[in-house]
Design a protein that fits this description.
The protein is α+β, with helices and mostly antiparallel strands and 151 residues long. The chain is built from 5 helices and 6 strands; from the N terminus they run βββββααβααα. Strand 4 and strand 5 form a beta hairpin. The chain starts with 10 loop residues before the first strand and ends with a helix.
């Protein structure tokens, strides 16, 4: 593996351990040329998932889009980074457990809403307001009513 600091090809593994609930291997490496250390992760390569957008365009699945949506909806809420990360992992597990090659963005949105509801109710309403594109107060209130009825 090439050293990210000096670009030399001579690096060696000095430590390996499981990461991400045994879904990956974390390796500490050291460059023989410059002596600096760095970390790499080894994961099983998955078949790329294609997301079908509302306008019928297709693009490759991107975890960071889900992350940014969930983090944005939890802004200034008492939700720890660990709980947010666990929620995103759960969302991703549900998506990949469907075992499909293509998925509609609306299906992903429903999965996110289902998971975020258990994370924080205010975050859920924030996400829903963007995802469902609330046009007026009545649609907002009907979503709140659904949330309160399920309590």
């Amino acid at each position: 593996m090439k050293c990210p600091f000096c670009g030399d090809d001579n690096t060696r593994v000095i430590d390996s351990r499981p990461a991400d609930d045994n879904e990956a291997i974390r390796r500490r490496r050291q460059c023989d040329e410059c002596g600096k250390r760095f970390t790499t992760y080894e994961k099983v390569e998955t078949i790329p998932l294609i997301v079908i957008k509302k306008d019928k365009n297709r693009e490759t699945y991107d975890r960071s889009k889900i992350e940014s949506g969930v983090v944005r909806s939890c802004h200034k809420r008492p939700v720890s980074a660990e709980r947010i990360a666990a929620c995103i992992d759960q969302i991703e597990n549900k998506i990949f457990n469907l075992e499909v090659k293509e998925i509609e963005s609306t299906k992903i949105g429903e999965i996110v809403m289902d998971e975020i509801k258990d994370l924080d109710q205010v975050a859920y309403v924030r996400f829903a307001s963007v995802y469902r594109e609330f046009k007026d107060v009545n649609t907002f209130m009907s979503e709140l009513k659904k949330l309160l009825d399920n309590k």
